Amino acid sequence: MAPARYSGPMRMFTTYANAHDTMLEAALRPVDLRVAPAAETTATLVLDPARPRQRIDGFGASITQATSYLWHNAMRHPHRALRDLFSVTEGIGISMLRQPVGPSDHVTRPYRFTRRRPDRHLRTLDFRPEEYTILPMVKAAQAMRAQSIGPPASAPDLNIIVSPWSAPWWMKTNFSALGKRPLTRLTGWLRPAAYPVYAEYLARFIETYRRHGLHVFGVTPTNEPDYPQSRWPSMAMSPSQQARFITRFLAPCLRAHGLGDVRIMCWDHNYSTDHYPDGRFVRELYMDPRAFAATAGSAWHYYGGAARTMSDIHRRWPTKGIWVTEASGGDWGPRNWDDALVTMGARVISMMNNWAQSAVLWNIALDTRGGPDYYYLRNDHTHSSNRGLLTVDRRTGECTRNADYYALGHFSKFVPIGSHCITSELRKAQRLHAAAFATPDSAVAAVLCNERVAPATLRIDVRGRESQTFALPARSLTTMVFD
């Protein structure tokens, strides 16, 4: 019996590792997985495009100072790397960046935007370290994206979220860019007297990006406010401190600079931390009515807790946005092609099903030792165990696409800005995961993850259409796009 077919064209792409788990057997390979319906098929995915959920604002990663250094100095084919990452037609079409404000943990050396002495009026503010090293790659990435779309551009520019790892040292209670003093362990909080100048500092950084023709979509007050430590730049903030900073200083300052459209995102940390389990930080901040009004939503990382925390927040405050702003791969987690691909794919699917409007991984590119990583070498005396989307061999200049590149690509290539996650339901589908989207061009894209060690047969039922049966390869990610 011939399988029933959808009325419109369908495209399918799949990725999975080879039998020895030494490389990918298929990498976003076009396939046709349709099979004749079998009586024993029980796993079903029901999609309802008529019931849209959250808007999608982008998929991407970060052009850190470490990444930009490799792009400028180590890549043999930097243009090809940008094409693979940002081209909508020839690459994976990355649509969002999260950019550190000042040094993060991945830098070649420390740098600052103000002189060493305190500068409460920001007279010495100088963003040239950003403009000379990082912005050229960011602008080239946006140009690559625009070039691949063609005139007139039918898709938005890159959405950019900016996040500081720390305020300048003289704005903090421990007078250090580090979150804790190495010897005294003194924690660095933002000094109350520095709230207005810190807000001005962030506004002027955003203005710099805007002046270069870049679209800053959102800002967070600080990265990981519950993880101040002595290894790299960081800064502690409590919910009450962040609420006061946002309402009295950051939001008014952005409006005064004509940046009222920039979304302020609170938290920017894990689903759960020791001091703030299961979204407690966001819950406490939202209890302040002024902070609730001034905040567009919350930003999340996937390193601790469960993605369902975002659904808990959404159920209570459905008008507030939810964005995942960091989710790195590395040797501290799944290392091999198979585990890294399937784990990251399933995690991103879970983010989407729990109301995330974005999924941003960490470094775009790192070298074979997880660097450049000044702070890791200085304080841990060993290299980073992080993994970028690309790995750059400094000896040859060649770039290798990692599993995370393909896991992200199954979303970023087929789910553009302005898509909406749609209601879906998996039935009797143990170890299968799925998220589905309605795109601006009236297509439906479904991303499927098969965690099983054997192929899985899945029937997909789209409301108002005939069902279709597919055979998903073992341990694979598959994206299906149909009209």
Structural features, described:
The structure is a single chain. The chain is of the alpha/beta class and 483 residues long. The chain is 27% helix and 27% strand. The protein is built from 12 helices and 23 strands. The protein has helices spanning 65-73, 78-86, 128-133, 135-149, 195-211, 239-256, 280-286, 289-294, 308-316, 337-353, 374-379, 403-412; strands at 10-17, 24-31, 34-35, 44-55, 58-62, 96-101, 159-164, 215-219, 263-270, 297-301, 321-326, 329-330, 358-363, 365-367, 386-387, 390-392, 399-401, 420-427, 432-438, 444-450, 456-462, 468-472, 476-482. The strands form 4 sheets. The chain has a 10-stranded mixed beta sheet. The protein has an 8-stranded parallel beta sheet with strand order 11-10-9-8-7-6-5-13. The longest helix is centred in the middle third of the chain and has 18 residues, at 239-256. It is globular. Residues 1-7 have low confidence and may be disordered.
Features of the shown structure:
483 residues, alpha/beta, ten-stranded mixed β-sheet, eight-stranded parallel β-sheet, globular, disordered N terminus
